[in-house]
Amino acid sequence: MKENKAIAKDFLQIKNGKIIQIVPEKTETSSEFETKTGKKYHAEVYTNLISCAKYLQVFEDEYDGITYKKLSLTMQDNNQHWECLTMSFNSNVAASLICRLSNEDFNPLNELNIGVFKDKEGFDVLFIKQGGITIKSAFSEVNPLPKWVKTKVNKKDVWDKSEYLDKLESLCEVINKRLKFEPETTSAINPITKTDESLLLIDDGDDMPF
Prior knowledge:
mainly beta, 10-stranded mixed sheet, 2 helices
């Protein structure tokens, strides 16, 4: 059984319900993953991250000629080491992160314990704890986010998430104001993109745009 690693380093992402850090070659503790196109690669797998949130950033990336949005959370641990967790903006894990950091119970000055679990519908979402207490979503049936709208494209039903995603992006700005971090003071917030060959963001299935 793999050792429970609490703190990762550098650039991380979420793949198959796991927090991973891609490595250039196989190590004694790495696991093998495979892209939709069959490309295999190795990554260190982390059960959780313990660090302080510093900055949320929405940015554009490109895959197979399609431009889509990613979300990165910049963090700094107690050893003053910078970490950047990146995920598709159009994903359940991104929404769960934003909704939990929007909760007034979230204290920007305290460490976060972040991990991934499956909700009752079977979707990957992030859990966040501070001081052993779970930070829940700021939204519910009583206080909902904008609903997805079913529409037709080429005679097929698809979900239009535009208003929902716009709300999530605006919430990132609100969270950053609470974090009170000045990003120009460090290059640590720079997310990775497809152009970073040694830290290639692997295509991650349902995180692609609809």
